[in-house]
Amino acid sequence: MRSRDSISLILISAASLAYEICLTRIFAVQQFHNFAFIVISLAVMGYAASGVALSLSRITPPRHLLASGFSVATLIAYLVINYLPFDSFSIAWDRSQIWILLLYFTTAGLPFLCAGWYIGQSLREAGEAAFRPYAANLIGASIGCLIALLSLQLSSEEGALGLAISLGLLTPVLLEPRRILRLLYFIIASVICVAFLWPISSLRLQLSPYKSLSIAQQFPDAHIMTTRRNASARIDILESGGIHSFPGLSLTSPAPGLKQNGLFIDGDGPYPLTNVNLDSRETLAFARHMPGAIAYLLRPDAEVLIVDPGTGLAALVALSMGAEQITLPMDQPLITDLLSGEFSTMSGDVYNHRRVHRVPRSSRGVLSLEETQYTIVEWALSDPYRPITSGAFSLTENYLLTQEAFETGWERLSPDGIMLITRWIGTPPSEASRVWSTTLQALRRQGLEDPAPHLVAFRGMRTSTMLVSKQPFSEIDLTEIREFLVRNSYDPIYLPDIIEAEVNQYNHLPEPVYFHLFKQLLEAPDATIRDYEFRLEPTTDDRPYFFHFFRWAQSSQVLATLGVLWQPFGGSGYFVLLAMLALMLLLAAPLILLPWLSLRRSPQKSLPPYWVWLYFGGLGAGFMLVEIPIIMRMNLFLDYPVLAFGLVLFTLLLASGLGSLQSRRISLKSGLAILLGLHLLNIVFLPLVISWALALPLILRVLITMLWLAPTGFFMGIPFAAGMRVLETQTPGLIPWAWAINGAISGLAGVMASLALLDLGFQVTLGFGALCYTVVLIASRQWG
User: Fold this and answer.
1) DSSP three-state, residue 424
2) Nearest Cα to 276, choosing from 298, 257, 297?
3) Is the link from the previous residue into 428 a cis peptide, with omega within 30 of 0?
4) pLDDT digits (tens, 9 = 90+) for 579-605
5) Where are the beta strands (DSSP E) in 240-366?
6) How many CB atoms lie within 10 A of CB 197?
């Protein structure tokens, strides 16, 4: 393989992977974060389609046309996604949304078809030496990860996309024999790169009109004051008279009259920015009527850690109530930079207050630091209200609301400390009840056999608040709590000495459902969780999907409301996954069968044995069932999802490329056996490594991630390269067919991995990945 061919293959592979990462950010901003997982399946399905095209087509397109086709298809995909609004909520009754969604996926997948055709053609032409272009593809893809992360950090989603398009156009510069055309490609690539780095209005990423920011902008005086970006988020600050968000504020509070603006993360919000004078009576009066104030009345002059501080509303209350010292993690550094800098006055300047200590770590990272104890550890209600019935966030992991997070918070408490947790409420009970269930499990795991004396819960109109005390609540504490509840017209849900006559007095419900459910969860947790209509199982770091409430028993109810209610997905976004699985099956079937039918009709080529199908299909499924759960698990370890996504992909792909280069020197069966052993190590020890190293500085966690995953990636790169060599030796000309099988099964496995993660957790999903590689090992012993 010539060096020029290798470099061009690296370029197109880098462009394809950069586009894949950029597409996850575009979907996250334009739609929702739970669209991001679809991108991986789209990518591998595009590669599978390219394998079919290679198998069936008698034409061999020039590679410079395939590379430029990738760039043109990427531009078309961006324009379709940007200017054709899609509403996932109305898809149940608006049939046009189904066709829009299909158009989204088709156009978004076309660039992968072009890139996959280019790569597959290089593999076919290399024959028994296919391991060399395969290694170049993997190494190029790993470089694309770095390019995407850097461009997203330094510019924007538009700039990163323009760079991916430009990389695709630079590939023909190396391949085109005519000098004038090489120059033309270079000029076009440069112009596109500049046009997307500093986009005109028609090229800027447009939010879906159904996102919160788009709706908030319709208020008459609303206008965006600034938009900032980094690799993990887009932040918009909206000035508007229509924003009033004081979660849990008592109905007895005097009208606060506090000016608020809104901060939006990827178009989702608003996260309130409250402009106050901390020394004013008005601010103190407001703070005393917030639910979290009770903790500061019980424990004055407290040392406080605020988990998920958001835009500082909880810190504002803590300062007003006299907290001595407040520790604020930096879950989103961009927010901290804005609110400690030019927009500090919009949030009462709490991030710069002398009693506030900012820590450049995520909330889970700060919780893991063992040297500090706190009088109050508060889980602030920083995220906006999200209806459980919509299920839009079912696929979003939350490592701050797991039993491990609550256990760590308990360990950080001083001997007289209190944990304070506020969540939204709805009917029937869901969010608050799951937090209660998870907290109870965490306390029991900490050795508290009877947690009842340590617990208090109450509710207002929209929120519930839970107090968890290291010591049993005293009679003085309970008297203070009851006076606070009466003063603010909050209803008790649970007190250690509660009687039913006390509940459901102010924010009246037809039945005291919260009181009954919380009591049942305390007294008979297993039976209550088993019989409840939603999922209330405690969330864990292994299954951190807090908003996944769906049970199969809900199916008839959900189907009955399709096309009737504006929120079509009942208790979860689970049906979105099932619909995606059905779509992937419809796509995968022809991608697998068409090359097979072509082989049956070809007298020159014999059909490969079924062990070959299992081999390449198992590799595709195994790779996805290992890659996706590791990425999700590393979201906790590396603080930021985009860093986890990019670093895990970079490490696995680069190591796999190096493994492919060594595939002739390492026995296939030995390599697969070692790989299985490494997967078992991941299943057993990766959670322990994450728990042990979570408190370390980020640079050390990045190094640990790379060192831990590199051996796995290295041996994952061997089987496909070795399999292509054996396949070409025994039945020449079938590499495109193997490429199609591998991609199609990978696409299916990507969706199945998401389903398994929701219901079974990371460890079990990794176990399925190991099982797939076991099938590959068995197939390799039968075939060849």
Assistant:
1) strand
2) 257
3) yes
4) 778 878 887 888 777 777 766 666 555
5) 259-265, 268-275, 303-307, 325-329, 356-359
6) 17
What's the first-to-final CA gap in the chain, in angstroms? Answer: 26
Residue 377, by phi and psi: left (phi above 0), alpha (psi -120 to 50) or beta?
beta
Number of domains in the chain: 3
Closest CA to 162 of 329, 662, 637, 170: 170
Task: Quote the pLDDT of residue 572.
Answer: 47
167 and 193 co-located in one domain:
yes
10 Å CB burial of residue 426 (0-12, 13-18, 19+) is middle
Q: Return d(Cα 106, Cα 74) in angstroms, integer.
A: 11
Query: Are residues 559 and 575 in contact, defined by beta-carbon separation less than 8 angstroms?
Result: no
Indicate if 189 and 229 belong to the same structural domain: no
Q: How far is CA 53 from the centre of its chain?
A: 33
Range of the domain at 347: 275-548
226-254 tens-digit pLDDT? 999 888 889 999 998 888 888 999 988 87
Report if residue 564 sits inside a domain: no
Residue 415 banded pLDDT, cuts 50, 70, 90: very high
Please indicate, yes or no, if residue 265 is contained in any of the structural domains. Answer: no
How far is the C-alpha of 22 from the C-alpha of 201, rounded, in Å?
A: 19
Quote the pLDDT of residue 53: 82
Please check whether residue 270 lies inside any domain of the structure: no
Domain co-membership, 524 together with 400:
yes
Nearest to 141 by CA among 716, 627, 653: 653
How far apart CA 595 and CA 55 sit, in angstroms, is 6
Burial (CB count <10 Å: 0-12, 13-18, 19+), residue 626: buried
Asked whether residue 565 is domain-assigned, the answer is no
pTM above 0.85, yes or no: yes
